[in-house]
């Protein structure tokens, strides 16, 4: 039986959220964005987190960085240490320094910026003692060794093969230290075998 625990989140208000470029299959600049609706939904989510007893910090959004709202991508934080993202796409590169500065000023005195492309907790998820690490579309596989050396935790590399699931967190979520849920078709055969071996009781998702 899973036990709820308080968590610590960082959120970025979608003040400047928009879709003005396309760097994944879900982004269509021809479709309008309802910014007031996005802000209302964000405010509601933040309220839910707070009412459940979680801690929510916020980072100031930066004009011209519409994807900064996806705060999980900004860094990987484990055991009080922060490895700041290095984004693949030019449109997002400036997010890295913004998250670096916030972390430096908010309890993480020596955050390190990744040397290789590493899209933060979009591709890195802590599951018990392991750090599950995605690659295939965004994060460089060389970033896996870098993360292991930095955090001192075993990193399990997982290769994504479906471009609709370009970040690990679009295909896998950690429910507790022993349990994950994932979409099998998003992973390479070898990575799928690893997941089955490590998490035999995982919740398997199916296509909608």
UniProtKB/TrEMBL annotation:
Xref: Gene3D superfamilies: L-arginine/glycine Amidinotransferase, Chain A
SUPFAM superfamilies reported for this sequence: Pentein (SSF55909)
GO molecular function terms attached to this record: transferase activity
Keywords assigned by UniProt, alphabetized: Transferase
NCBIfam families tied to this protein: DiMArgaseDdahMtb
The protein, known as: Amidinotransferase
Source organism per UniProt: Streptomyces sp. SID7499
